[in-house]
Specification:
heterodimer, A: 591 residues, alpha/beta, Rossmann fold, Alpha-Beta Plaits, 3 domains, five-stranded parallel sheet, five-stranded mixed sheet, 18 strands, 14% strand, globular, disordered N terminus, B: 157 residues, alpha+beta, Glutaredoxin, four-stranded mixed sheet, 7 helices, 11% strand
Chain lengths: 591, 157
């Protein structure tokens, strides 16, 4: 590099000296350990000052200049005066880099956020509370990470940072002058990790910023304990115990780590290529099954001017038909069939059974409560009903099933050839150069061969996407006439007991909406219940593992409203159960 | 994991059952008696306490004093303190690493040696210093390493 510079200088003696990038290093609320890492660069400091001009670095020099290209920020933002200062830095710097865990996530400084600023002040300055009250240096608000106040271009994580990571940026900016919105690929691997081929969820430590959202969801919210933080400092990674694959551990494939990852460090097994090759294969009989719940979420990313769900689904159906799908079906039908089958089962059996709805719930029971394994009825899960029915109807040869699903758990179902999540569908359509916003007069509706003429307007009664339909089906299956209301009793946080007492008999169900709390209920004798339903995801399928990241409750409400409107267009029917069962039976008979 | 190990862990768990947040102290005690906190031990502790395997694994990997593998017969500590660093402690460490094919924190395949890099051993006048079990070697040169290690290889010690 230096040799080259000399050559250039020799060639054009009069050329102006190329200016070095100007770097400034600032600290906010922090221990200054990351800056110390830079001060401790030892012989490498020669390289740093050779490649860049350090114009401000309070820890090691008293000179200061407001003219800089790159600003490294250490520490979190705690006071209005800090906020003002960081905004000033942002406006002057072309590139702003958050350096260290305090700047990247707020880290230990955020521990204080559980208390009010007044309480924190009282705790730290008990004798001088009055004096510090009106002093702007002690005027604090809840601690914020740098990216909560200003835009951050790059992150260097670690407590403290690794010297190599700082040097990496110095070298890159020396060869590639810093400019606004520049795109750098960060290629320092924090730690090699064993990769598990069987798992449908993958983790990329290079992208991870260790915000620990996934760990909180997995351990504290769901109580599954599949992943956690291991190692420390800049070697820390999210991992399973002993780095085994997720499948080998407790993972229930709910995909909540994936949905809640702000930087996409978790990713699912992509089925985009598989789906495309299936559709291109003219020999196969391809059936595409679309779940409207996935479409309600995918709509947020699809470039469409439509505000309603029905036209978007119709265009999607049309696109799949043009690509070569022989049949396009609505997944909702199989959900109703599943409900019907379960209602029928409960009517004929007096034993307790788990609601067969979500495969994740089944995996959860199988892993954590093996004593209840015999009460699971996986054959009634909608996806399995779907596979069963399609195989009966279209034969096993050449049949290929593509499912558009709100959850990644179906990717583990080997009977379904390809599963596209709400996140994958827009990418799939883009890679096929299909445009959702077009008008096609034909082929816009679902095939009705397997569909029931009657559908049931449900799901809107509960906060979760689908809750009472199963129960209601169960009750209707048992009692034929459901003349009075169900008795819903809240038995604890997120758990309800639903019972119905009549001349025909007594029926009792338990609904647990938060599986972290299951210990308390499942360890008692649950065999007294006829039906037990578990929810692995908080918020149900609307915020399922294959959906687009939900940033606010309003988004969930919007999705719910879209679905409600969509279902409202379909005629509802009261005696849906008998019709569906007879239809299911007739499908079986046509084998 | 045999009955003796289970008895030891049960005793430790029983001793600290009234302590608030006993994870660290349980792991320390198990390691003190059994020499390491292996996978089976962690799984057993996870089963018996409120802690999940994930949490225990996180704690064990966070603190360098915990070992997941049984230690070797002889423990080699190589000083990387300031004085030893200045007088070539790094070269000594590198030489031991190449001879034993392990990194600090690792154990050789024949379970004879475990290697650890430590800060000051308190005898800077003898730097660079290494310590094998309880014996200290001062003024160590990379060329002398093979000779020192061979003392322990023949089974004489």
């Amino acid at each position: 590099m230096i040799v080259n510079d000399v050559n250039i200088d020799n060639k054009c003696q009069n050329a102006p000296v190329k200016s070095k990038p100007r770097v400034a290093i600032f600290d906010f609320a922090s221990c200054e350990g990351c800056e110390l890492q830079i001060a401790n660069l030892e012989e490498d400091i020669l390289e740093v000052i050779d490649r860049v001009d350090i114009v401000s670095f309070r820890e090691v020099m008293k000179e200061h200049s407001d003219e800089y290209d790159v600003a490294f920020i250490e520490g979190s933002i705690n006071r209005p005066i800090d906020e003002e200062r960081i905004k000033g830095i942002r406006s002057r710097a072309k590139i702003l880099i958050a350096m260290g865990d305090c700047a990247c996530t707020g880290c230990v400084n955020k521990l204080r956020n559980d208390w009010s600023p007044e309480d924190a002040r009282k705790e730290v300055y008990p004798d001088a509370a009055k004096q510090v009250k009106d002093n702007e240096f002690f005027n604090i608000f809840p601690a914020k990470a740098v990216n909560e106040v200003v835009d951050v271009d790059f992150y260097i994580r670690g407590c403290p940072i690794r010297k190599e990571q700082f040097l990496y940026y110095v070298r890159r900016f020396a060869t590639m002058p810093p400019r606004k919105n520049m795109n750098l690929r960060f290629d320092i691997s924090p730690k090699e990790m064993e990769v598990d081929k069987r798992s449908i969820i993958h983790y990329d430590p290079q992208k991870c910023i260790l915000c620990k959202h996934c760990q909180i969801i997995c351990n504290d919210v769901l109580d599954v304990h599949a992943i956690g933080v291991s190692m420390k400092g800049n070697e820390s990674i999210i991992s399973t115990p002993f780095n085994k694959g997720l499948d080998a551990n407790n993972c229930i494939n709910c995909g909540q780590c994936l949905v809640n990852c702000p930087v996409g460090a978790f990713s699912e097994d992509s089925h985009i290529e598989i789906a495309r090759s299936i559709l291109e294969d003219k020999k196969s009989f391809t059936v595409v099954v679309i779940d409207p719940i996935a479409m309600a979420s995918a709509m947020e990313v699809l470039q469409t001017s439509e505000t309603q769900l029905a036209p978007v689904i119709q265009s999607t159906i049309s696109i799949f038909r043009q690509m070569g799908a022989k049949k396009v079906l609505d997944f909702t039908n199989f959900m109703y069939l599943s409900i019907a089958a379960q209602g029928e089962h409960i009517r004929n059996h007096h034993e307790m059974s788990f609601a067969s709805w979500c495969p994740s719930a089944s995996i959860f029971v199988r892993q954590f409560y093996p004593q209840y394994r015999k009460y699971l009825r996986p054959e009634f899960e909608p996806a399995n009903v779907m596979v069963d029915l399609l195989r009966r109807r279209y034969g096993k040869k050449n049949l290929k099933i593509i499912l558009i699903s709100p959850c990644i758990v179906h990717k583990g179902n080997t009977n379904i050839d390809a599963v596209l999540t709400a996140r994958e569908l827009p990418r799939f359509l883009k890679s096929c150069e299909a445009d959702i916003d077009f008008y096609s007069p034909t082929g816009m509706d679902f095939d009705t061969e397997c569909a029931m003429t009657t559908t049931f307007l449900g799901g809107a009664r509960n906060d979760h996407t689908y809750s009472l339909p199963i129960l209601e089906a169960a009750y209707m299956g048992k009692f034929k006439n459901l003349d009075s209301a169900l008795d819903v009793k809240t038995v604890g946080d997120y758990a309800h007991e639903v019972s119905y007492d009549s001349e025909e008999g007594f029926f009792n169900a338990l609904v647990i909406e938060d599986i972290a709390k299951t210990n308390r209920y499942l360890e008692k004798d649950i065999r007294k219940y006829n039906l037990v339903e578990l929810y692995p995801c908080l918020g149900g399928c609307l915020t399922g593992g294959g959906q687009i990241l939900t940033t606010s409750p309003e988004v969930v409400e919007r999705r719910k409203a879209l679905l409600k409107e969509y279902k409202g267009t379909i005629q509802s029917h009261d005696k849906f159960i008998s019709n569906m069962i007879s239809a299911y039976e007739s499908c079986k008979g046509g084998e | 994991m045999d009955a003796k190990d289970i008895f030891i862990i049960d005793t430790v768990l029983d001793k600290y059952k009234d302590v608030k947040d006993p994870a660290l102290i349980i792991l320390q005690n198990v390691q003190a008696v059994l020499g390491y906190v292996g996978k089976e031990y962690l799984e057993y502790i996870a089963e018996k306490t409120v802690y999940s395997l994930t949490e225990l694994y996180g704690i064990v990997t966070f603190y360098p004093s915990f070992r997941l593998e049984p230690p070797g017969k002889h423990m080699i500590k190589v000083c990387q303190g300031t004085a030893c660093h200045v007088r070539g402690g790094e070269k000594v460490l590198r030489e031991i690493q190449t001879q034993l094919c392990i990194k600090p924190g690792g154990t050789t395949e024949d379970r004879l040696f475990s290697l650890e890099s430590v800060r000051c051993l308190g005898c800077c006048g003898l730097s660079p210093v290494i310590m094998i079990d309880n014996e200290t070697y001062g003024r160590v040169k990379p060329a002398k390493i093979r000779e020192i290690l061979n003392k322990y290889r023949g089974g004489s010690k």
